[in-house]
Design a protein that fits this description.
Layout (H helix, E strand, L loop, with lengths): L10 H5 L8 E2 L2 H10 L3 E6 L4 H11 L2 H10 L1 E6 L4 H15 L6 E5 L5 E5 L13 H14 L1 H28 L5 H14 L16 H14 L2 H16 L13 E2 L7 E2 L2 E2 H18 L2 H18 L9 E2 L2 E3 L6 E3 L7 H8 L1 H10 L24 H16 L6 E2 L2 E2 H17 L3 H18 L9 E3 L2 E2 L6 H18 L2 H17 L33 H16 L2 H10 L1 H6 L8 H12 L2 E6 L5 H11 L7 E5 L22 E6 L2 E2 L6 H8 L3 H4 L5
Parallel strand pairs: 1-3, 2-3, 16-17
Antiparallel strand pairs: 2-4, 4-5, 6-7, 8-9, 9-12, 10-11, 13-14, 14-15, 16-18, 18-19
Helix pairs in contact: 4-6, 9-10, 9-11, 9-23, 11-12, 11-16, 13-14, 16-17, 16-18, 17-18, 18-19, 18-20, 19-20, 20-21, 20-23, 24-25
């Protein structure tokens, strides 16, 4: 009989609806039940594409004896971390502080007052590698709760106080420091260079995550200062990832991370947020360098998003699972959909093409993954492009007949905002109007389903049905970022207006007026044991730095001193963190580069449909000036709706472009080449057509 999770909108929660564990969703009812029964809460946090979440579910949560023990002595609560990033953030911080590490599944034991007192991640079904079994953990926690309740309460109180102390660091720090200037931005570059893997690209060792936000900073720093070191790190990292196993060489898109330092073996889950961020990063790599590899990678990543993550309603699903059924055994196996042996290549392609494909994609008899299988890589450009495309297409078709990984089809507002921005820009610069249309359709879904009549965002939806969880800071910031990108590409002023409404909500409900610091949750959100607040990037930009970027962009369009001041105050934390941890503040560094450059404001005025207007608009969008904003309008446009377009006439009756900083403008130009020169358009990207 299904438990209380059967009606959840989260695919992750629904995966546990048939467990014998009597799961509750997160909510006041669960904690009231724990209070009534006088038992602790077992909190389990994960997400649908999480491999080890599936493993622990199969080993422990599906075990009738373990479930019976847990049901009798605990109130068990399941949380999808992607639906409730605030809950995840608060308790993950406690886990990391107590154990020195974190991850999912996350297992936390709480008092009925939501205070944590015992932590862990994955626990095996029997003692293994120094870890207790999950049953032993349950027994130990129950014994402590029964026999040493006062001690448990003291531990919980100390942990809560420690979390409160940690939270105050950001609020104080943001009021002391300034946004990084020239010295701070250079120090960040030096610190990154020390951590750069010169042999394999990227930063640090294994596991290695794709640093899309750092790449954006490096490209902006190069564009502003001419630093060849910054460009080299960005290019070498981009090429290494695009050629490695982390990149799906047949279907496009990227896995979440590589388990090794050389990008060879991925953790095979594919997340919307990674692919949206990497799509934009590769587009900007192409824009800066004209690299055919970067261009191809951007397009195949965009095609992956449309083909495999787009929902029937037009938005984008959260993730594809790492696991899929093995065609021979039917068991769920990580990577089964993606890996190959030489024999499998020959079976699909024949002996000659099979040998060619094995050499091309680094498929060996020994294998690069498990059980003699290999993850496809493309370490060099194929000499015969036609042969490469023929082989790749046939392998892609054959792979499509394999059992496919499960899809988490819930729609997350923030990640769709990232996808909207990436697809809109890619469609405009690479002559793919279908991508712009896809971005507009996803944005329309966010407006229709996620935006409430009161102007507040809901975090998730599924099948066109809104969820119940309030949007967090990243939802507002990344959705605003997507709307601002759509405005730059389409010239439709409504997108700018909508972005402004979201950012006003950020300033009203998420900002600390005294310090300029930003909180991850609104001031009227559910009260947790502390209000989460973290400016550092993880797999996605932090809500804090994403908001700073969007606020700065909106201020450049509108001239709003209020929004610019808020952006500058928010970016003060970057000055504190950049020299020490630049890898984890990349989006903030990118915003600081835009601030240092102005950012430049570009107004393109001309009749819609005029080729001369389109040429100027394209030249503006190709500009590499950090964070440059582009407004497009017909003669007479502007006013309160788009101040940047106000009083911008045609020049000699011809379409014209105005390049400004802080609303002080250069002489207008009608020549796309002159505009390109003013905005740093590379000859490689801007000097040839996108097709």
């Amino acid at each position: 009989m299904p438990n209380r999770l059967a009606d959840a909108t989260s695919p992750y929660l629904q995966q546990h609806a048939d467990n014998p564990v009597d799961w509750w969703p997160w909510g006041p009812e669960a904690f009231a039940e724990a209070e009534r029964r006088g038992v602790p809460v077992l909190l389990s946090v994960g997400y649908a594409a999480c491999h080890w979440c599936h493993v622990m579910a199969h080993e422990s949560f599906e075990d009738a004896a373990v479930a019976a023990y847990a049901n009798e002595r605990f109130v068990a609560v399941k949380v999808d971390r992607e639906e409730r990033p605030d809950v995840d953030a608060v308790y993950m911080e406690a886990v990391q502080a107590a154990t020195g590490q974190g991850g999912w599944p996350m297992t936390v034991f709480l008092t009925p007052d939501k205070e944590p007192f015992y932590f862990g991640t994955y626990f095996p079904p029997e003692p293994r590698h120094g870890m207790p079994s999950f049953r032993q953990v349950l027994e130990g926690v129950h014994a402590a709760w029964r026999d040493r309740r006062e001690e448990v309460g003291e531990v919980a109180a100390r942990i809560r106080a420690d979390l409160a102390d940690r939270a105050s660091v950001y609020a104080v720090g943001s009021g002391v420091h300034q946004p990084p200037g020239e010295t701070g931005l250079h120090e960040a570059l030096v610190a990154l260079s020390r951590d750069f893997d010169e042999l394999r690209g990227g930063f640090g060792g294994a596991p290695k995550f794709p640093p899309a936000m750092v790449v954006e900073y490096l490209l902006r720093h190069h564009a502003r200062t001419g630093s060849e070191a910054a460009l080299e790190m960005a290019v070498r990292t981009g090429e290494a990832m695009a050629r490695g196993g982390i990149h799906d060489q047949l279907g496009g898109g990227f896995a979440r991370y590589a388990v090794d330092a050389g990008w060879v073996v991925p953790h095979f889950e594919k997340m919307l947020y990674d692919n949206a961020l990497l799509l934009r990063a590769y587009l900007h790599l192409w824009r800066a360098t004209g690299s055919p590899l970067a261009r191809r990678t951007a397009l195949t990543t965009a095609d992956f998003l449309l083909r495999e993550l787009r929902t029937p309603e037009g938005a984008f699903a959260s993730a594809l699972d790492a696991d899929s059924p093995d065609p021979e055994t039917g068991r769920q196996v990580e990577g089964a959909y993606y890996v190959w042996t030489p024999a499998q290549l020959a079976e699909v392609l024949g002996e000659a093409d099979g040998r060619y494909a094995a050499e091309l994609f680094e498929v060996t008899g020994a294998g690069t993954f498990e059980h003699g299988t290999s993850v496809l890589q493309l370490l060099a450009d194929p000499e015969d492009e036609a042969a490469y495309e023929r082989v790749r297409a046939r392998l892609f078709e054959a792979r499509a007949a394999r059992p496919v990984p499960a899809r988490d089809d819930k729609v997350v507002a923030a990640w769709n905002g990232l996808a909207v921005a990436a697809l809109a820009e890619t469609g405009a610069l690479l002559d793919r109007p279908d991508l712009v249309e896809a971005a507009e359709r996803a944005a329309d879904l966010l407006l229709a389903v996620h935006l409430t009549p009161e102007g507040r965002l809901l975090r998730t939806s599924r099948d066109g049905r809104p969820g119940t969880n309030a949007g967090v800071l990243e939802d507002y910031a990344d959705t605003a970022e997507g709307f601002l990108a759509l405005f730059a590409v389409t010239g439709e002023a409504e997108w700018l207006h909508l972005a402004g409404g979201l950012l006003d909500t950020v300033l009203k409900h998420f900002a600390d007026e005294a310090t300029g610091a930003l909180f991850d949750t609104a001031d009227d959100a559910e009260e947790l044991i502390r209000r989460p607040q973290d400016p550092t990037d993880n797999a996605t930009p932090s809500g804090w730095t994403a908001a700073a970027n969007a606020l700065l962009t909106y201020a450049a369009y509108t001239g709003s001193a209020r929004h610019r001041t808020a952006a500058e105050r928010a970016l003060s934390i970057v000055g504190a963190l950049a020299p020490r941890a630049p890898r984890f503040i990349g989006w903030g560094l990118a915003a600081a580069e835009a601030l240092a450059d102005g950012p430049r404001e570009v107004a393109v005025i001309g009749p819609a449909g005029d080729p001369a207007t389109a040429a100027l608009h394209r030249a503006a969008l190709l500009g590499t000036a950090p964070g440059a904003v582009v407004a497009l309008g017909e003669p007479g446009a502007g006013g309160d709706e788009v101040p940047l377009l106000t009083d911008r006439p045609l020049v000699g009756g011809a379409p014209a472009a105005y390049v400004c900083r802080h609303f002080a403008c250069d002489a207008p130009t009608t020549d796309p080449a002159v505009l390109a020169e003013r905005l740093g358009v590379s000859e490689e990207a801007g000097g040839r057509p996108a097709s």
